[in-house]
Structures are given as C-alpha cells and as structure tokens.
Amino acid sequence: MNHNPVYLALDLPRLDAAEALARKVAGHIGGIKLGLEFFCAHGHHGVHELHKLGLPIFLDLKLHDIPNTVAGAMQAIHVLQPAIVTIHAAGGRAMMEDAKAAAGENCKVVAVTVLTSLDGDDLASIGVNDQPHAQALRLAELAHSAGLDGIVCSGHEVGAVHKQWKDGYFVVPGLRPQNGGNGDQKRIVTPRQARDDGASVLVIGRPISRAEDPLAAARAIEATL
Ligand code: C5P
Q1: What PANTHER family does the entry give (predicted)?
Q2: pLDDT band, residue 3 (cuts 50/70/90)
C-alpha cells in the first residue's frame, strides 16, 4: 500500500471539533500534526484522544531552550509516542544533539530553520546579517551535522535542500492544491510538486479543514499523489 505523506494540521481551538474533523478524513491522510496552540490548550489528554484514531502524530512544538531543558521536554513526551517532533535549529548544535539523543527510537527530530514570518530586516534586528535564505541554508547544514533527521522547509526550497541532503527527512508546509480556490496565486506549490521534489511529509491544514467538504478535499489531494 502506498504510504500517504499528508499530515493534517489540526489548528482548531476546540478538541471536539479537531477530533471530529480528523475522524472524518482519517482514511485519506497519513498522520495528524498538532501545534503549540493545540498542545498548550489540550496537553497530553488532547494527544491521547487523537491517538485513538490510530494515525501517527506529529508534535510541532518548535522547542528552543538550553540543551538540558529541551532534552527533558523530549523525554516528557516519550509517552505520547510522537512520530515527528520539531525543534529550532537556532538553539544550536548541543541542543539539537541532546534533543535527538533524548527522542524515542521511532521519533524523527526535525529542525525549523528560519520562520517564514521573518524577513531580512527582522534578522538584522536580532543581529543576523544574512538574508533568510542564506541563514536557512546555514542552519540546515548545522542540523544535518548535529544528527537530526531533517528540516522543515518550504515547497520552493525542498528540491534544492534534497539535492544537498539525499537521505534527509523533509517536512513541507504551506501547500495548496491546484484547484483549491487559489488559482489566482502564482507561486503556489502543490502537494504533488512538493512530493516529487523530495518532501517526506506534506503538512496541509486549511485546504482540508476549511473546505466546504473536508472529506472530498482530502480525497482529492490524495488522488493527486
Ligand atoms: O496553511 P495551512 O493551514 O495549510 O498550514 C498548515 C500548517 O503549516 C499550519 O499549522 C502552519 O502553522 C504551518 N505553516 C508553517 N509555515 C508556513 C505556512 C504554514 O509552518 N510558511
């Protein structure tokens, strides 16, 4: 059977609504992504509830602290058996190494490089004098050499990153299906394009969660892959 690379981003404030949506589309996605907002609101209980669907769980917690604290946090989430956890590459080599060492055996640890909300001026204001692209490449290299499984990157970058890091695990958000009502947007990357360029995981939220018919939307995306 073909492994479905789509992780549904459940960025809904209510646990019951998130659960209902996940249950509806469960047969047409490969996993569930839970972010910081969900985790702060619903904690371990919320994750346990969604585990009942039997799908892999991606905890997008973007951890960033001293190595000892991040390693402790990784150990504290073992019990949730996440398939993927994110940390910030900007936390440095020792933090990444310790996070990976503390992760469960079947847990991919993936680094966020530069948040897409930051531009060159934002980086300059925190003392980073490179443009976001150059800084992202530098942090990707650091994550690789620190022994992480991969990085989070955009659909525009995944092809180039994949060429540099052949066996990397690449998590790609910000995707839009071709006919998802975004026909006017010029630079969309479709789930299929990202997968062909080397994405391991396709993070998709609103194109499914805000669709009039989420099940039909999930099926349509699955059919393109
Ligand atoms: O846009 P969409 O709802 O598909 O986003 C899915 C997930 O991807 C969200 O949880 C969002 O936080 C994440 N995302 C991201 N970086 C982007 C765009 C979206 O991490 N540039």
Answers
A1: OROTIDINE 5'-PHOSPHATE DECARBOXYLASE
A2: confident
Count of C-beta atoms within a 10 Å radius of residue 206: 12
Whether 11 lines ligand 1, by a CB cut-off of 6 Å, is: yes
State if residue 210 touches ligand 1 by the CB under 6 angstroms criterion.
no
Q: Domains of the chain (ranges plus CATH)?
A: 6-224 (3.20.20.70)
The sign of the torsion formed by the CA atoms of 195, 198, 201, 205 equals: negative
Cβ contact 167:108 at 8 Å? no
Atom of ligand 1 nearest to the CA of 175: 4
Contact by Cβ (8 Å): 65, 90: no
| CA 121 to the chain's CA centroid | 25
Tell me: the pLDDT tens digits for 85-137?
A: 999 999 999 999 999 999 988 999 999 999 989 999 999 999 999 999 899 99
Beta bridge partners of 63: 87
Please work out whether the CB of residue 9 comes within 6 Å of at least one atom of ligand 1.
yes
Q: 204: CA distance to ligand 1 center in Å?
A: 7
The SS3 assignment for 67 reads: helix
Question: Could you tell me the pTM of the whole model?
Answer: 0.94
